[in-house]
Design brief:
The strands form 2 sheets. The chain has a 4-stranded antiparallel beta sheet. A 3-stranded antiparallel beta sheet has the order 5-6-7, with no helix packed on it. It has 10 helices and 7 strands. The longest helix has 15 residues, at 222-236. It has helices at residues 73-78, 104-116, 118-121, 135-138, 148-152, 157-168, 206-209, 222-236, 258-271, 283-292, and strands at 87-92, 95-102, 123-129, 193-199, 239-243, 247-251, 295-299. The chain has 301 residues and is an alpha+beta fold. 29% of the residues lie in helices and 14% in strands.
Length: 301
């Protein structure tokens, strides 16, 4: 299982160092703050000219020679995006996930660039974490589901979340004690990894197209994830950013307001009750995070 905690930052030599936040707070990774992300077109990833082959980020020449039949590279090039050579990562029932390697520093810019062009290209991006997790056609990450996408169409997400909330039990309650944070940060792109591309018109479909089993201990499968992510996409325009061994991350450009945050926190707790066992002490803390952050993190243990 990958370690998604960032490496420790060197301490600055200051007379009075700022208090350190909790190291196990999954929503407050110890790394430099940055401005809220948007889906505005970002600066394209920059790669310095190299003198030899870089296995993690191959040199590219924007020619047809790098295209592989069926890959999204030609469509991306027509949209103005020159990406490295990619390969088939997973193929299931005629649906293929393509991937290429990305450096940690370029993972989010690549995701944003490709997502921005998705309506034109027809390909949706998702960060996949370590390549080791996706060996053998992603056997460790994908379960043998049937028509999970078709099954998702018959799931009432609100009813499902209601049932899972009852199963999870009453969450811990109390006055929020975590620091108020408003920046957006993601755990997966803190390390080099893979960026996957799937031919679909909606990112929320991807966990069902490649049935994701990172939360099978909570009896959520590809169809359940698709139904819930679709609900949050309609409400908050939530977008799937990352899908790794047991972590899912969403970009939420329009978080809930203060009035609805507690209700949404209840939904999030029903979806992933492990959150309140992994650094978020109370439901009110979770609601505070829902209001201010555009990065939603889920990890099932």
């Amino acid at each position: 299982m990958p370690d998604l905690e960032p490496e420790a930052e060197p301490e600055a030599a200051t007379p009075e160092p700022e208090p350190q936040e909790k190291a196990d707070d999954i929503f407050v990774p110890e790394r430099p703050k940055r401005e809220l992300l948007t889906l505005d077109k970002p600066e394209p990833p920059q790669r310095p000219p190299g003198t030899g082959r870089d296995e993690m980020m191959p040199r590219e020449e924007d020619t047809d020679a790098l295209d592989i039949a069926g890959s999204p590279r030609a469509a991306l090039r027509e949209a103005g995006l020159a990406v490295p050579r990619m390969h088939q990562l997973v193929r299931r029932e005629g649906t293929t996930m393509w991937a290429f390697a990305v450096r940690a520093s370029e993972a989010l810019p690549w995701w944003l660039e490709i997502r921005q062009a998705a309506e034109k290209t027809g390909w949706m991006p998702v960060l996949l974490g370590s390549p080791e997790e996706w060996r053998d056609s992603g056997e460790a990450i994908i379960h043998e589901g049937d028509d999970e996408l078709g099954r998702a169409a018959g799931i009432d997400a609100a009813e499902l979340l209601h049932d899972k909330a009852a199963e999870a039990g009453e969450p811990a309650r109390g006055v929020p004690i975590l620091p108020r944070r408003g920046d957006t940060d993601f755990a997966t792109p803190q390390h080099d990894g893979l960026l996957g591309l799937v031919e679909t018109d909606a990112g929320w479909k991807i966990p069902a197209m490649f049935p994701w089993k990172g939360s099978t201990n909570w009896e959520l499968y590809g169809a359940e994830h698709a139904a819930i992510l679709k609900r949050w996409h309609h409400r908050f325009e939530a977008e799937l950013v990352a899908m790794t061994y047991d972590v899912m991350e969403l970009y939420v450009p329009h978080p809930p307001n203060a009035e609805e945050a507690l209700g949404v926190a209840n939904e999030v707790y029903a979806y992933c009750p492990d959150l309140l066992d992994s650094g978020v002490p109370t439901l009110e803390d979770l609601a505070e995070h829902m209001i201010r952050s555009k990065a939603w993190y889920f990890r099932w243990t």
